[in-house]
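User: Here's a chain of 327 residues. Predict its fold as tokens.
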Amino acid sequence: MKTALITGLAGMDGSHLADLLLEKDYRVVGMIRRNATRNLGNAAHLEERVEILEGDVTDFASVMSIIQITRPDEIYNLAAMSHVHTSFSQPIATFAIDTIGVVNILESVRMLGTTTKIFQASTSELWGDSPPPQTEETVMRPRSPYAIAKLAAHWMVRLYREAYGMWCAAGITHNHESERRGPLFVTRKISMGVARCLVDPNHKIHIGNLTAQRDWGYAPDYVRGFWMMLQHDQPTDFLFGTNEMHTVQEFIEEAFDYARAGNWRERVVVDQNLRRPAEVDALQGDYTKAREILGWEPQVKFKELVRRMVDHDIALVRGGSATATWR
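Assistant: Prediction complete.
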């Protein structure tokens, strides 16, 4: 039985990855931040099925101790301050979590001399204003504290791979969502907002930028790619996307049309306070390398993603099961 350590277990990706690894008969150890309430977030359903350890990726002693105790075959570093807009107001915390945290993991594995494979979650925000479509070879031009912190982490992974011969690699993920996405992210803000519009005639959805274009995929597809990366013979970086691009407005239109929620223009407020100081206009991931080498393909595309999120949130708002059929 392989052992996998997942940092950021309580997040969207962490919980989906744990579900996948349990299906594959892994021993799963999840690392969560210390908190008084032991809030497991998206991983609440996993409490009896995984080992949960409290730790802090920014604390080297904490990271070293957990790796030494658990001796994982694979580490998936999914812990991050991942909200781009927030990173502008919290750049120091963002850098500490998203960069120093990665270095702590790399150094711990190097010093312990284990053969642990390390996956680092990189981001399509690395591309910044480089024109789409992007590939693994696209010039990285980050435009936020979050993206810059992730770029530093991305290059540290490459350095440790080349300098020390360690098995570590980064998955560059384009935007991916699911029913477990946090409520402050634009996609969940839309799906939850549409659900609330159906029951509250006065509800408004505040959006910062309608014209931003993104490549949206489904998180369970992407964590499957993470696992496939670590089963590959050689450590190398891969991009995960759908090679499709849609605007925020298209996401809104699809959600409103599917839910029969009326005219979206009467419910959406463009709020300039929600715009980033430096915008990233267009991201589109060409996943040819992942397809040709790993055999990875995204199974859920844009319209189905939107509809799954809307279904979930309508059921949630109406007080039923989150998987209930409402139509």
